[in-house]
Amino acid sequence: MHLRHLAPAAVLALLPAFAACSDDDPDSTSAETSSAAPTSDTAEPTTATPSPSATSATPTETAPASTLPAACDVVTVDDLSRVYGQSFVLDGADTGETTEGGLSWRTNSCDFDVEGLVDVEVSLTGPGDFTKGSFGCPQPSDADGIVEPVDDIAGATGGWWKVSSAPPLEGELRACSADALVTVEIDYEDGQDYEGDPRSESVQLAEMVLRNLQG
C-alpha cells in the first residue's frame, strides 16, 4: 500500500476546517475581590472640664479703731479717793465687750480697789468701738436692778443710773457725750454698808473723766 503524501498546499487548505471544528474556550475572568477595610468613625468621647466658678470676695466692714485714750490715762487713784472718800489702789487695766439689747460694743477699762470693801471700774467706749448697732447711749437692762435716766451730768448729753434692788450694793452709771460713753461700775463686798450717795459721787467721777477727755 502506497501512502500518498499531501502536497503542502493541501495541508494549508485543511487548516481552516480544523479551526472551525475546535470549540472556543470561554474566557475565565477572575473577578477581583476588593476588600475595603472598615473604617471606624466613632469619635472618642471628650470630657468637658468644668470651668472654675468665680467667687467674689465681699469686703467685710470693720468698725474704725477707737481714738479714745486708755481709761487709766484719764482717771487716777487720787480721783477715786477724792470722790468716794476711800483709799483706793490701782487694780489693773482691762478690755472687754458688752452685748445688750441687740447692741455690742468694746470697752477699755481701769480697775480700782479698796480691799475687802469695794471695787470700782471706769470704762471708755468710742463711736468706733460699737461692733453691732450704732453708737449712742444704751439703756441698761432692768432685769436685775432699778434703772432711771440721769440728765444732770456736766459735759454729757444724757445718761443712766442702775442700782441693785437688794444688798450688796451694785451700781452702774452711764454718761454719754458725742464722742464717748463713760461707764462707772461700783461693786461692794457682801456685808458692807455704803455710807453716802453712790449715784451723786459716780456722777462727779464721770464729769471728771469727760473733762479729762476734752483735754
From TrEMBL:
<feature type="region of interest" description="Disordered">
    <location>
        <begin position="22"/>
        <end position="66"/>
    </location>
</feature>
<protein>
    <recommendedName>
        <fullName>DUF3558 domain-containing protein</fullName>
    </recommendedName>
</protein>
<feature type="signal peptide">
    <location>
        <begin position="1"/>
        <end position="19"/>
    </location>
</feature>
<keyword id="KW-0732">Signal</keyword>
<feature type="compositionally biased region" description="Low complexity">
    <location>
        <begin position="28"/>
        <end position="66"/>
    </location>
</feature>
